[in-house]
Design brief:
Chains A, B: Belongs to the thiamine-phosphate synthase family. Chains A, B: Its cofactor is Mg(2+). Two copies of one chain form a homodimer. Chain A contains nine helices and eight strands. By secondary structure, the first copy, chain A, is α/β, with parallel strands linked by helices.
Chain lengths: 209, 209
């Protein structure tokens, strides 16, 4: 994988709670077919074995479509399946430690909700930033709010790609794009919709205008 | 660390719920001073960052006393602090994957509650087995029961060290020793006691008879 060529446009972060009885791996495949350019597998309440098995299954799909697969938080899982990268929040492994253990070739993304966090992450070698929460979200209640103005300031202060996250959907997507970000991260706007394929396609269409 | 020289006699597995308001790192130090020969850090409900910070703190202590430190389940934490080893349960990373990622020099222990699991773990290169639960325990409700007879069968069927775990304390310790195990793993019999140092010393005394 060529890190410089990664397309951050429509970045799917998983949340199995959005899916009801639907299968996570199948839902990810539908989202990719609809236009998702990057997948982050995020699991907080399963055993390591279950996370690993799911990650192996998802990697088969993302590899088939040549979409990068990023693991949230768990470097052990990222290493075990040789994922394309790791995403760390402020309560996860420190960026520097993650880079030391993963090496220079893997994508490492960092969650940032302030300019300070963003600048530090860039300085420490992050490949991209996940900035949010931009809008109110039911998925991640521990995220600090970031205004569209702050998002714009962060985007103009760093040279690595910035992906906006938090409550982004079809209606507010134009506002986020106006901030000049490299991509948007979505959870419920894709996985919480009845037709996952169409939902991803609709977002992709708005992003391509 | 010389893997062959590891002393499994009195193996402490941590559980912060046993401690009330007492500090985990301080409690571990008291247990070591009382005679604990090995420490396994087990955390199931903290963030990766918190687990890492705690593990770094505990490693300072175990290094000072030259006691091996084993991390439960989380290979990312084990790698991040360069721990002496990893303990995996049947719901954690598979033994083979853990060995592949940790290399030959690290201690890897596997939980086994059947002869089949024990033989497989040995064959896959486990350094020791944690066999239990021998007695009823409030700490780990997902553990399958293993009789003293089964424990003895497992001990005689493998050539790697066998550590018995589950509800072991001063009163039933002689029964477990009679099964010929290499060591006992304790949680509440040390960390759940008012005087951690004395509790470890008392167990060590019984073990030395």
């Amino acid at each position: 994988m060529n890190k410089a060529a990664v397309d951050y446009t429509l970045y799917l972060v998983t949340d199995r709670k959005q899916l009801g009885n639907r299968d996570l791996a199948e839902s990810i495949e539908q989202a990719i077919q609809g236009g998702v350019t990057l997948v982050q597998l995020r699991e907080k309440s399963v055993s390591t074995k279950e996370f690993l098995q799911l990650a192996e299954k998802v990697k088969e799909i993302t590899s088939r479509y040549q979409i990068p697969l990023i693991i949230n938080d768990r470097l052990d899982i990222a290493l075990a399946i040789d994922a394309d990268g790791l995403h760390v929040g402020q309560d996860d492994l420190p960026m520097v430690k993650a880079r030391e253990l993963l090496g220079p070739d893997k994508i490492i993304g960092v969650s940032a909700s302030t300019l300070e966090e963003a600048l530090l992450a860039e300085q420490q070698g992050a490949d991209y930033l996940g900035v949010g929460a931009i809008f109110t979200t039911a998925t991640k209640t521990d995220a600090t709010d970031v205004s569209l103005k702050q998002l714009e300031v962060i985007k103009h202060s760093v040279s690595i790609p910035v992906v906006a996250i938090g409550g982004i959907g079809t209606t507010n997507l134009p506002l986020v794009r106006a901030a000049g970000v490299d991509g948007v991260s979505v959870v419920s706007a894709i996985l919480g919709q009845e037709n996952i394929y169409s939902a991803a396609m609709e977002l992709k269409k708005i992003l391509s205008f």
